[in-house]
Amino acid sequence: MKASAEKIVRMAELEIDPARIEAYTALLAEEIEASVAKEPGVLMLHAVSVKGHPERIRILEVYACQQDYEAHLQTPHFLKYKTLTADMVKSLALVEMDPIAMCAK
User: In this structure, are strands 89-96 and 8-16 parallel, antiparallel, or unpaired?
Assistant: First the structure.
């Protein structure tokens, strides 16, 4: 399973300004859709909020490799998202993850 070991898996934990949550989630959805559609190395981006706390966003990110992750950070759609949401994000933590079992339908 060497290919699996090379994947980059992380959980982004964000706290968003509650007054800006609608604008933030619209920009986030646009960025995720563009990333998955346009970047072969972006294998999965799933965004959710903590139940009862829409300002607490969690994004499960899976990239084919480190190079694909670094390329993702330079795309126009990601840079637009980062620029337009910079003043909406109160905190951001990126937690590196080790995949155990990841399945989808």
Answer: antiparallel
Q: Where are the domains of the chain?
A: 2-96
Q: Tell me which architecture the domain covering 2-96 has in CATH.
A: 2-Layer Sandwich (3.30)
Half-sphere CA count of 17, side-chain side, radius 13 A: 9
Which is nearest to 53 in space by CA: 25, 16, 12, 85? 16
Q: Which residue has the tokens 């993702």?
A: 72
pLDDT digits (tens, 9 = 90+) for 71-92: 999 999 999 999 999 999 999 9
Please give the structure tokens belonging to residue 84.
């337009």
Distances (CA, A) of 101 to 9, 45, 49, 79, 104: 12, 16, 22, 31, 10
The pair phi, psi for residue 79, each rounded to 5°, is -65, -35
pTM score, whole prediction: 0.91
